[in-house]
Design goal:
Oligomer: single chain
CATH topology of the largest domain: FAD/NAD(P)-binding domain
Number of strands: 21
CATH architecture of the largest domain: 3-Layer(bba) Sandwich
Number of domains: 3
Largest sheet: 5 strands, mixed, barrel
Strand content: 25-35%
CATH superfamily of the largest domain: FAD/NAD(P)-binding domain
């Protein structure tokens, strides 16, 4: 016999746990199902983001950033020391402790909000019933007036580079190396490849990134991509564009990678570890039983409308398993929006103001349109940029690399995009998000008082440069 709920959520990742908590806050009887197991063998809520994605990767990035500063930057501040060393196992243990803190935090929030939690694999059946095969082998059925599918995503595995968990790994394996590989190859120059490649490069690995596309970071503004490529090269990342991998073979304790370079010549590279970071796919395998009426597209994503409804009465889907960018914060907003729609409140996600961030050194962040997109769409625009090298706080921090670019409509002055490469870009980008969310103009940004000295002054001056009135640069 099924237990009845107002809302049943399949998945406790960023999208799912936000949906469950918001639904419970709104007085709806809520259950949430999650199958993940942590490194300690116990259930761990929070999805890929908290367990093996956003949070642990940022922990490693911060640890290695501190180490890199010790080796290369602290002497500028008059700080000297000898025999700097990184204890990789301690670094990873710190990462694991942070993960446990946050996954445990989700469990506490579920308890505080009286959310019924089921640990196991949930499958949607006809009639809004969810069958849960629990980790202890038992099966329970939950009936939901509404069911929210938040199954998340999985790493894409290449047929010629199967994960073995030791020599050929995905992001999960690359977060848990017990020592620094002397030679690391990465397939894919996207966010995961660049971030984890940076982690191990900072610790001394020789890192080669093989990217099949002919252009670097095509999704970012072209000027940002150009500077990023230059800075990554200076940092020692060897990024090969137009490199199409066709074969990998583990030989002894090495991996031989065969690829065709941009000139069409077959090449091989021998490394100690190979990270496959070619993207992620919706985790929809086994998700739907017979007769649910829910549809999957050719990419395995759950088909939904603009409000995340599947077209089946009471069935919704959110996060990585539906269309749109696979970003935790996109899932956050969809989860909250759907819970509020179920409760009869307005719920909406503005895809035009979702920020994108790459947490490398330097950081890269943007919101809205790039210059190349505006040109392709025939939108009249004007641009203003400002370098961090002219910002007092950035120079004082020894973080003078990078710039801010503001793009505004040539006729209305409405901000269409904000692009940043440099220190703290991940935080600064939200000035653009807020401005765009409130349909603000470049002049609005330019007339807002920014504290001095701060990094945010670069945004202020870039906005002033849109109308050629920047004070600290020639226009």
């Amino acid at each position: 016999m099924s237990e009845n709920f107002d809302v049943v959520v399949i998945g406790a990742g960023p999208a799912g746990y936000h949906a469950a908590i918001r639904a419970a806050q709104l007085g709806l009887k809520t259950a949430c199902i999650d199958a993940a197991i942590g490194k300690d063998g116990n259930p761990a809520l929070g999805g890929t983001c908290l367990r093996v994605g956003c949070v642990p990767s940022k922990a490693l990035l911060d640890s290695t950033h501190q180490y890199e500063n010790m080796l290369h930057k602290f002497d500028q501040h008059g700080i000297s020391f000898s025999n700097a060393a990184m204890d990789v196992n301690k670094m990873v243990a710190r990462k694991d402790a942070i993960v446990k803190q946050f996954t445990g935090g989700i469990a506490m929030l579920f308890k505080a909000n009286k959310i019924a939690t089921y640990y196991g694999f949930g499958q949607l059946q006809a009639g809004n019933v969810v069958s849960v095969k629990q980790h202890d082998g038992s099966t329970v059925e939950l009936k939901g007036t509404n069911v929210i599918i938040a199954a998340g995503s999985d790493s894409i595995e290449l047929p010629f580079a199967k994960f073995d968990g030791k020599y050929i790994v995905d992001n999960v394996g690359a977060l848990d190396f017990t020592d620094v590989p002397k030679r690391l190859a990465v397939i894919g120059a996207g966010v995961i490849g660049l971030e984890l490649g940076s982690v191990w490069k900072r610790l001394g690995a020789e890192v080669t990134i093989l990217e099949a596309a002919p252009t670097f970071l095509a999704a970012a503004d072209a000027e940002v991509s150009k500077l990023a490529a230059r800075e990554f090269k200076k940092a020692g990342l060897d990024i090969l564009l137009g490199a199409k991998v066709s074969k990998t073979e583990v030989v002894g304790e090495e991996v031989v990678v065969t690829y065709t370079d941009a000139q069409g010549t077959e090449q091989t590279i021998t490394v100690d570890r190979l990270l496959v970071a070619v993207g992620r796919k919706a985790a929809s395998k086994g998700l739907l039983g017979e007769g649910t009426g829910v549809q999957l597209n050719e990419r395995g994503q759950v088909v939904v409308d603009d409000h995340c409804h599947t077209g089946v009465n009471g069935v919704w889907a959110i996060g990585d398993c539906v269309r749109g960018p696979m970003l935790a914060h996109k899932g956050f907003e969809e989860g909250i929006a759907v819970a509020e729609l179920i409760a009869g409140l307005p719920g909406h996600v503005n895809f035009d103001t979702i920020p994108y961030v790459i947490y490398t050194g330097p950081e890269i962040a943007w919101v809205g349109k790039t210059e190349q997109q505006l040109k392709e769409e025939g939108v009249p625009y004007k641009a203003g940029s400002f370098p961090f090298a002219a910002v007092g706080r950035a120079v004082a921090m020894a973080e003078a690399t990078g710039f801010v670019k503001v793009l505004a409509h040539a006729e209305t002055d409405r901000v269409l995009g904000l692009h940043i490469i440099g220190a703290n870009a991940s935080e600064l980008v939200h000035e653009g998000v807020l401005t765009m969310e409130f349909s603000g103009s470049a002049d609005d940004l330019a007339r807002i008082c920014h504290a001095h000295p701060t990094l945010s002054e670069a945004i202020h001056d870039a906005a002033m440069a849109v109308s050629k009135r920047a004070i600290h640069k020639t226009n």
